Amino acid sequence: MATKVQQVGIQMYTLRDQTEKDFLGTLRKVADIGYEAVEFAGYFGVSAKELRTTLDDLGLAAPSAHVGLDFSSLDNMQTALSREIEYAQELGLQYIITPGSPVPANPSLEDVTLLIPFFEKASEMVRVAGLKYGYHNHDFECQLPTT
What we know:
The protein is built from 6 helices and 5 strands. The protein has helices spanning 16-21, 23-32, 48-58, 74-91, 109-113, 116-128, and strands at residues 9-11, 37-40, 61-66, 95-98, 132-135.
C-alpha cells in the first residue's frame, strides 16, 4: 500500500496584502520559510506558464486555488469559469474551490436554493475538465436561524 505524503501548505489569501504588492516574491518567501505547498487566491496577472516555472523552481506544490464564481448569471459564470479552468489545467492544479457566495449573514432556504444551479454547473464543468470541485464554507453560512 502506498504511503500518502503530507505537505505543509498555506492558503495565499492569508498573505493577500503581500501578494498584491509582490506575488512572485511572496511565493519565494513562503518557500524560503519552509512551506511545501500553496493554495492560490488570485494570480495577479502572472501567466500560468510563468507561475508553473516559478513553482517548479521553488519546489512548491500547488494543488488548488480559490476561484470566485460570477453569480450575476449562469452564462457569465460559465464564461469566466471556463477561463479559470483552462488556467488551472495549464498550472497543473487538482482542485478548484469556490471561496464564498453572495448569501446574507443568516441565509434563508430561498437564498441558498437560488445558488444551487451555479454550484451544479460549476461542479460539472470542473469535473468534466478532470479536476475536483469544492466550496469553502464560512461559519455565518451555517448558522441556524434565530427565533
